[in-house]
């Protein structure tokens, strides 16, 4: 039953992987600069790494907004967010998982009578605007730099394109890492306060309770990337493909920088050391940041045909997505609690928050931890087998390609 | 990644080799026609043989470049344009070859009063094609300089038209000593020489559009 509660978060992770991986590798795959298989493997691996290594920062912020303290509540909140994302995507409206989860958490706060931390909320809402703006600024600066380097060095177009290709792969890996680090909170953040697991010692490193959840969430995102993102990448990619290859690289780099900045605790600490205000650790929407980056490049190039309709839709999304997710979360919690009689959480009494957590795992902590251990080990082994299989498949493809080329030229002569 | 860079460098070398072939073909065309007009048949045959080799080599390089660009996913965004540019430039050397073969097969008799005119027509027509090569090379390294290089192609093409027009007018208006069939034959030969600059202009138009697209 406990694992069942996680399914809504895993579903949200799957849909995030299917949708948001296109922001990272869409332009590269859409323009056939990088094969989907290579992109999917790199993105999956780095999303998981980002989630496990650096996912804690943004999850903490969501926890401050509303520490969902029962698994039934976490399940419903994640489900409400997932359904909102699904519905908005179905009606072709630009949607952000971040905004959906924020709305759903506020719905839970209202339902359980917990106050919503307005300071945290305003920080989060602030980043919805500052994220795309920062993306635009980074994109302009990086684009200026790349164009100048290209002009000054007079690199052959084909060689330059091959550097861009390599750059896209590296930037894509960085962007995937940042996406995992920044957006894992949307997927698993609501489960962190309600889920307590024993630390998992894997010999080389130990995974904390939250990290185990992030690993599971990361695997769900990876599953979304591997199973469903191809179509999205090719569709979204063909929309971005009108950008030049250097612009595509700039967009990916700028996006990854923004996501990284909003999820790096180390960078935030460094800012504090310099006497500057700390950077808020907030999950931001990669789709909206990418729109900011594209607009930034458009502005630099002096484009007059900026799609204000798209900007308007994004602004509407800032209100409609959290509102829809909030309402859905509120009413779903009502049904789950009153019809299925499942604990969806309760009001947190100040100073006794830890003690009031109802995880449902305290009675048999070893049990669920053991299960998690086997799930994670199985996932790691499957990942290694898949990586070896992919490597062998790539080698076979290369060998066949070389053979067919040799055959062609032998016969044409 | 090393394999990937090797493929890229191979393709660059092949594209450069292709342009070298076209460049040499234009030189040989100029010298070949001059040899024919001055009556040096041996030299003309040697140039004809050379053009034949260059054209076949250019065809092979064109196929190899197209093949490599597809199989190794080189320049996916500009692949179609580059392929078309190479095709258009291959048309030039094809045109050169067919022109020289026309001379070899039909053995046109050039009136001595027109010899200088035809040599200068060949010069200017070849110049138009020759000026296209640096512009095409620049497309790959400095696309923003392509258009300024193409100005010379358009200039020489228009000069070719003017010279061809003058020669044709002279043939049909002033040279009453030759019969109409020979006049028509000469017009046909002039058209063949003039065609090289027209092909260069077609490629230049395309290159110009490609340069704008890359610069945006």
- The average pLDDT score of chain A comes to 80
Largest interface: pair, residues per side: A-B, 25 and 27 residues
**Strand portion of chain B:** under 5%
The percent of residues in helical segments of chain B reads over 70%
Q: How many individual β-strands of chain A?
A: 2
Q: Please state the oligomeric state of the protein chains shown.
A: heterodimer
Shape of chain A: globular
Per DSSP, the total helix count of chain A is 13
Summarize the structure.
The complex is a heterodimer of chains A (413) and B (216). Chain A has 13 helices and two strands, in the order H-H-H-H-H-H-H-E-E-H-H-H-H-H-H.
Layout of helices and strands, plus pairs?
The complex is a heterodimer of chains A (413) and B (216).
Chain A: H1 2-30, H2 36-54, H3 56-65, H4 71-90, H5 97-112, H6 118-153, H7 157-188, E1 200-201, E2 206-207, H8 209-240, H9 245-261, H10 265-273, H11 286-300, H12 308-338, H13 365-412
Antiparallel strand pairs in A: 1-2
Helix pairs in contact in A: 1-2, 1-4, 1-7, 1-8, 1-9, 2-7, 2-8, 3-6, 3-7, 4-5, 4-12, 5-12, 6-9, 6-11, 7-8, 7-9, 9-11
Chain B: H1 2-37, H2 41-71, H3 79-106, H4 115-141, H5 146-173, H6 180-215
Helix pairs in contact in B: 1-2, 1-3, 1-4, 2-3, 3-6, 4-5, 4-6, 5-6
Throw out a few tags for this protein.
heterodimer; A: 413 residues; mainly alpha; two-stranded antiparallel sheet; 13 helices; 1% strand; B: 216 residues
């Amino acid at each position: 039953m406990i694992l069942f509660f996680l399914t809504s978060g895993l579903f949200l992770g799957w849909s995030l992987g299917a949708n948001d991986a296109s922001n990272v590798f869409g332009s590269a795959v859409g323009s056939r600069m990088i094969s989907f298989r290579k992109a999917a493997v790199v993105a999956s691996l780095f999303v998981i790494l980002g989630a496990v290594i650096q996912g804690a920062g943004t999850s903490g912020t969501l926890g401050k907004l509303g520490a969902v303290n029962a698994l039934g509540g976490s399940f419903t909140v994640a489900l409400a967010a997932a359904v909102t994302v699904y519905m908005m995507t179905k009606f072709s409206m630009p949607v952000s998982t971040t905004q959906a989860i924020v709305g759903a958490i506020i719905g839970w706060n209202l339902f359980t009578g917990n106050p919503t931390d307005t300071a945290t909320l305003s920080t989060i809402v602030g980043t919805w605007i500052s994220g795309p703006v920062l993306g635009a600024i980074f994109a302009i600066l990086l684009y200026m730099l790349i164009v100048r380097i290209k002009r000054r060095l007079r690199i052959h177009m084909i060689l330059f394109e091959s550097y861009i290709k390599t750059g896209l792969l590296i930037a894509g890996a960085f962007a995937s890492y940042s996406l995992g680090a920044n957006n894992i909170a949307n997927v698993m953040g609501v489960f962190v306060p309600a889920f307590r697991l024993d630390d998992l010692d894997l010999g080389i490193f130990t995974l904390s309770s939250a990290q185990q959840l992030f690993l599971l969430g990361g695997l769900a995102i990876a599953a979304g990337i591997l199973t469903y993102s191809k179509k999205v990448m090719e569709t979204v990619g063909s929309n971005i493909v009108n950008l030049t290859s250097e612009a595509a690289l700039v967009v990916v780099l700028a996006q990854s920088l923004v996501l990284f900045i909003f999820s790096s605790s180390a960078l935030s600490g460094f800012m504090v050391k310099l006497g500057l205000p700390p950077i808020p650790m907030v999950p931001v929407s990669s789709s909206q940041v990418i729109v900011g980056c594209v607009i930034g490049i458009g502005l630099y190039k002096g484009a007059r045909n900026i799609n204000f309709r798209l900007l308007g839709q994004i602004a509407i999304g800032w209100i409609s997505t959290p509102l829809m997710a909030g309402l859905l979360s509120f009413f779903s919690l009502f049904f789950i609690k009153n019809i299925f009689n499942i604990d969806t959480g309760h009001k947190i009494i100040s100073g006794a928050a830890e003690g009031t957590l109802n995880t449902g795992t305290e009675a048999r902590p070893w049990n669920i931890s053991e299960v998690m251990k086997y799930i994670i080990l199985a996932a790691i082994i499957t990942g290694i087998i898949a990586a070896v299989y992919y490597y062998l498949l790539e080698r076979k493809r290369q060998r066949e390609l070389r053979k067919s080329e040799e055959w062609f030229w032998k016969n044409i002569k | 990644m090393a394999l990937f860079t090797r493929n890229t460098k191979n393709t660059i070398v092949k594209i450069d080799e292709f342009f070298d072939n076209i460049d040499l073909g234009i030189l040989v065309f100029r010298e070949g026609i001059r040899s024919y007009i001055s009556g040096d048949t041996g030299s003309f045959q040697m140039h004809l043989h050379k053009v034949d080799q260059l054209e076949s080599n250019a065809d092979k390089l064109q196929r190899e470049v197209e093949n490599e660009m597809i199989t190794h996913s080189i320049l996916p965004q500009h692949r179609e344009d580059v392929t078309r540019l190479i095709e258009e430039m291959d048309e030039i050397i094809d045109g050169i070859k067919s022109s020289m073969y026309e001379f070899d097969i039909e053995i046109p008799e050039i009136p001595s009063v027109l010899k200088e005119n035809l040599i200068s027509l060949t010069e200017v027509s070849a110049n138009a094609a020759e000026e296209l090569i640096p512009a095409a090379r620049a497309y790959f390294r400095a696309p923003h300089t392509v258009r300024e290089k193409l100005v010379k192609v358009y200039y020489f093409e228009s000069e070719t038209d003017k010279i061809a027009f003058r020669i044709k007018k002279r043939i049909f208006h002033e040279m009453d000593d030759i019969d109409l069939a020979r006049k028509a034959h000469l017009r046909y030969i002039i058209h063949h020489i003039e065609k090289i600059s027209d092909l260069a202009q077609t490629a230049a138009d395309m290159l110009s559009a490609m340069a704008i697209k890359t610069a945006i």
